[in-house]
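Subject: Interface between my chains keeps coming out wrong

I've been trying for a while to get a sensible model of this assembly. When I model each chain on its own everything looks fine, but I need the whole thing in one frame so I can look at the contacts. Pasting all components below, labels as-is. Any help appreciated, I'm running out of ideas.
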Amino acid sequence: MNDSSQHAAPDKPAPAAAPETAKAHGAEALPELVRFDKVTKSFGAGPEARIAIQDVSFEVRDLPDKGELVSVVGPSGCGKSTVLRIIAGLRPHHPPTSGEARVFGRAIEKPGADRGMVDQKYSLMPHLTVLENIAFGLKLRGVEAAERRARAREWAGKVGLEGTEEKYPSELSGGMQQRVSIAATLILGAKILLMDEPFGALDPKIRMQMQELLVQLWKEQQSTVFIVTHSVEEAIYLGDRVLRMAARPGRLVEILEVPRPDVPPEVMRKKPWFNRATQELLHRLETDAPASGELSGIEQWRES
Ligand code: ADP
Ligand code: MG
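Reply #2:
Try treating it as a single job with all components included. I did that and got this:
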């Protein structure tokens, strides 16, 4: 849709500028959206205790008129779901064992309408049609039938499900079920959207379509999105920032700033800087590298 020039910074950053994430966003004065301060979660007690995450600290500020897309990567068991579920206020991950987790400037107490979660298991209701599944949250909120049907129909269209409105989940492909699940969450307009490996079960082509769709909807809604993914390409493509985690104990190793997606994924994949950056992130993940700073290639993107 857009060419990459739209994305290029008008002034090149000074070559010696340090890649400091929060400062690069000029974020100090902006309201706080999510903040983790040395958050630790362990399950069980005594010798059986297992640390899910240890001393995780980061913050996401509310950028005016545009939300941030934060991708979370790391090996299995490093605590990615734990981080998301603490933000969502979902037990047993919430509350943390120590440290402080806040949303909108307040300690997280429980799930709320300000946060929406899409997880791996699409959790659709099998006895409800596509339209009824999409409208379900509106029903719980007391929106009257005609309005919720109209809004659900609109969302079915946005995620490319027109024509399937009266079908049941079992009649749909995995990719379509995932679209229903995403529409059912996005329709509620939560300011913070939490997605736990949402595209894991999809084949590569549908996955790319879903990535593009997510980017488009995210720009429209200006929400802040956290997306856990196993794919480094997806993390770099989607992210404004990438949280890289490591296991044993689960911890946040570094926060990488990456370009906003400005072209479809299949175009991005052909760019040399994108390939260099994904290779390097993959390498850092595989070797559990300590924080190593900006990904090589990203600075070339800025200068191109
Ligand atoms: P990831 O999503 O990165 O794969 P999780 O956040 O699911 O990792 O898990 C992090 C660690 O916490 C793992 O060691 C896992 O076994 C443990 N864990 C997660 N959920 C629970 C639970 N409900 N009870 C006990 N241990 C758990
Ligand atoms: Mg997980």
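Reply #3:
Confirming on my end. Residues 80-81, 196 surround magnesium ion (ligand 2) (CB under 6 Å).
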